[in-house]
Amino acid sequence: MKKKILMSISMLLAMCFAFVSCSEDKNDVPETKTSVVINLETPINIGENTLTDGVVLLVNKWGCTYTYTIKEFEKTEKGYKAVVKDIPVGTYGVIAQGKLKYQSGGKEITTDVKATNDNVQLVEDMNKNSISLLLHVFTGKEGFVISEVFFRGTKTPQGKQYIADQYIKIANNTNEILYADGLVIMQSVFINGNKHNYLKDYRNEGFAADAVYMIPGDGDDVPVKPGASLLLALNAKNHKTVNPNSFDLSKADFEFYDVSTNNYKDEQNPGVRDLERIFCSSASILVLNMQGNKAYAIGKIQGTKKAFLKHNYYEAQYHNEINGKLITQKAYFLPSSWIIDAVNIDMQDNPHDWNILPISMDKGYTYCIANTKDATGVGKAVVRKMQNGKYVDTNNSTEDFTPKATPTVK
Known about the structure:
3 helices, mainly beta, Immunoglobulin-like, 7-stranded mixed beta sheet
């Protein structure tokens, strides 16, 4: 799942304020004036909301900028609407931005939104003038996708299971350099095929994670070239020295290093940067779900890490269907607007009647095994398809991923 971006917000602002008034030569500005209806539509997965700090700018080729604040808009069923009068006919670039406040996961969320259209024609007949802009959540990390998840591990020559070689890959699916600083990588607390009646069920509102790790950096420390990937290894070492059937991950970009609170200690490669552990429900080290019935996501936390840890803690609770005992799963909740991409992984024979992700993130699933008795998925990965040099991204992992695929690091 990818929230598409036309330009960076900094570039948009620079363009806006470069044309705060008309150029000195106004002779070419048309004298004919017209009116236009501007509709700002809010994302459908956000629900009831309030748009604050909203501003819409119309910039024409003569360097004239017309600015309208959200106070001039009226609330509608789909968003906000305004009728702008006395504006010269011509071609305009339109920029809208603001902050949306809404409820998700039982808490108030604030997120940045924006929209652009660089070729709007305004004609003299005002009945033909209408501008509709769909506001998109802006995280500054759009364009990244999860390109591969290797969670099944490998077999040793002796036929024993080996899981230390798990990894995740994320890729830049744009034509420009992106910076991965601050990107979070998550595993879901919910399990496909393990249906429960949760007391507070936020599955349709966002992503509940039992593991949250962050790529460190100050904003420009982790550049990713167009089409390039970052390899995130559970253990960044040459696994072939232990298991000839495995891979050399010693040159991974990052590793999931955990300081354990029990006797299970993690290995650390001093030559590979550590991901920052924000939260993990495991008291020892992270292990990706081997059965392949959880979901994975990447996103961007809005606000500080301290605020996130304080306000986004979530206990997924349900009563055991047999003995009635209250079961509590510790997690952190991220609203849909903070999620950049997600992939739902399940076993092929599961009924798929209990979605652990909102359909806005993923309408389907991908897999490595058919059921718990299927041993053929060992050594396999789920790998995102490519088409015309780009990763396929339709928000449907059934269509976007090749299941039971050969790992790309092999």
